[in-house]
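Possible race condition, two jobs.
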Amino acid sequence: MTNEENTLTPSSVLSPKDFDSGFDVRWCPGCGDYAILANLKRVLPTLGIPKEKFVVVSGIGCSSRFPYYLDTYGMHTIHGRAPTIATGLKCSRPDLSVWVVTGDGDGLSIGGNHLMHAIRRNVDIKILLFNNQIYGLTKGQYSPTTKQSKRTKSSPTGSIDYPVNPISWALGAEATFIARTIFQYPDHMQQVLRRAAEHRGVSFVEIYQNCVIFNDGAFRYATDKEMRYDNIFELEHGNPMKFGRDQEKGIFLHGLTPKVINYKQAGFDETDLLHHDENAQESTLAFFLSRMRYPEFPEPIGIFRAIQKPTYNDLLDNQMEEAKQAVTKPLQEIINGEENWTVT
């Protein structure tokens, strides 16, 4: 299915205010969650879906307050189990648009197993993982994505853990839609969220989000107006991978290794650069991109992968229908079985 065929019809009725729950939004002043909430409120009315068909499911953490702040159906579940609840909900009510809101701690630590299986099954849910590389709600312990040597309350001499790479992790679980965006890029975030909503199957979106209290400036290299030109680049399907203030740098594939070059100085042109293909069934290119991390490489944002394959929900429905067709006996006879005995 092409993106054009899968595009939802915008609603002419709903507005962001329709998704405002009226509750006081309580995050720390300057928290990146405010921006994500505002952008999600802008996107939901454009999807052509009735408001009563949206459900937001969360676990535990700062990000998990989202069900309170959006005027939709929602569930605030237990730590790490939001994907499990969302899977059951989507299977029983396939007509609903189900969104999972989680954080790097909630989703990748205690919830890692649940998140992995929801992804590998290709359940038709939208997963937003807020990555601030720290545990915020529980006051600053290191999380699965915290960088090595980071000093926190639980690692006063520096974390020795190797951090999880969420995009690589999602690729390993065979996610059919994978993207990354940044809390300070509203237009880009809205584009990514719309694409995630339009995708049929699991959508995994990593959102870089600043924790102003416990990990302030973790993504300054990607948000600072002077630094970001050299440290990030936007993935565009079919286009060369270029970056820099004047788009003078690019990504060149040397054998099986991506290299950064100033292609104009080196005498290359855009055709020599690596071009993005988000629809590639083979995930090799997307994996290359997921391993490009600051400061060794500029980091890609945008759609890493967008492919189609049967969803868990469709396969489940087909299996149930086949089972119904195969039934030739009354239910009570099936329950009783072919062999019965009486215990005296």
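Job #2 (started ~2 s after job #1):
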Amino acid sequence: MRFKQISQLSFNPPGLRTFLIICAGQTASMIGTGMTQFAIMIWAYQQTERATTLALLGFFAFASSTLVGLIAGVWVDRWDRRWTMIGGDLGAGIITLILLAFYTSGKLQIWHLFAAEALSGAFSAFQWPAYNAAMTLLVPRKQLVRANALRTLGLDASRILAPALAGLTLRWIDLGGVMLIDTATFLCAVGSLLLIRIPTPPPSEESEAAAGETRWQTFTFGLRYIVARRGLLSMLILYALINLYAGLTWFGLLSAMVLARSGGSEPALSIVQSALGIGGVLGGVVLTIWGGPKRQVHGMLGIAAMSFLLGDMQLGVGRGVPMWVSGTLLGSLAVPYIISSNRSIWQAKVPPDIQGRVLGIAMTLQSATTPIGFLFAGPLADHIFEPTLMEGGALAGIFGPLVGTGPGAGMGLIFVMTATLGALTCASGYLVPALRNVERDLPDYDAVPLSPEIVPDTLTDTAPDTLSSVTISVGD
């Protein structure tokens, strides 16, 4: 029965086929982006040898995405969603080409990387809400969890391939060559979007009721919609806390910790990064076949709590590649369940024509804590926990038996702390009725997914007048 459902997901034309074309193009783009990010991370660490540098790379990307995302959803609902995604891919490709020019001329500096991450984050603030909203129009509601699992599967596949490919190509064609490959993958993503079209969502009662609102009310529509529904608000707060812990450790410190505890070993980091992707792929495959728990909220609460205990804790106490690989595998195995459960609930409860405004602000606020984690990760590691867990440090006698001493031990202790806090936070979500019963208490929207034909763009669409503003003024 399960395999029959997967077959239907993969081959039911034409809406699901359209989604799969988009997903394939975006996966190719993510592989190229992952290669560049890995290569840049190695280059940046070699220049400074500080955890703060790597943490700031992520901070600027997430911070700009958060700031722009506060208003991006309004335009996502107004613009053609396909052209919004095309503009995002083109903008990210142009940024990579600019970095390549600086590198080949010998003028690339760390602050250039920070600026590039900020611009890329701004593009993502438009692109990903458009992608989420497009999915709702292409995929039947009963298949949303599986479709979202396929999206995370593509992301995690890129995490497997990108570090390995980047580690290999860096030895032959250096950072500049990796950036050229990245640019080619952006063109693949744009090409796939040019082959399809995404239908315009039908108007909902909510959007018609908001038609006469002032400009300020339009910008605050998404937030007011969420606040009025305690279940969605509770989900937002919980996910924001999960992202805070992830920003502190998985995003902000994992690479620096592995490099510090392995003596700067690039192969060790590549293995751990690949294990991160393998765990996600395994989780995505199982979720795509299984379809997830009957109540999706368990993916955000129970499975997320186990991820913190089995993943973060093992990474914190581990002192070698085998333990780090085990921790990343077990921790990332749960990520597809967490992401797909969260995303599918939002997509099922919010009408498609207002998802740009509602999902845009929701995903922005859920991710807003990640740059906070990035911002504090480096200073906490470099100035507090690392010095105090050196041999003879103030905390060495207390926590040394647990996480060891020396380079990287302080960052390991931060992982232990987030493991404990994350598990307690997720488990406590069951004590909040609005969150525990969000799927039962909030009705699904009434719209039926549309089924567009896949035809060449030149026969079905013309570019909207707003394309130039997308391409020039935004950029993920």
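Residues 11 and 446 are 25 Å apart (CA to CA).
Logs attached separately.
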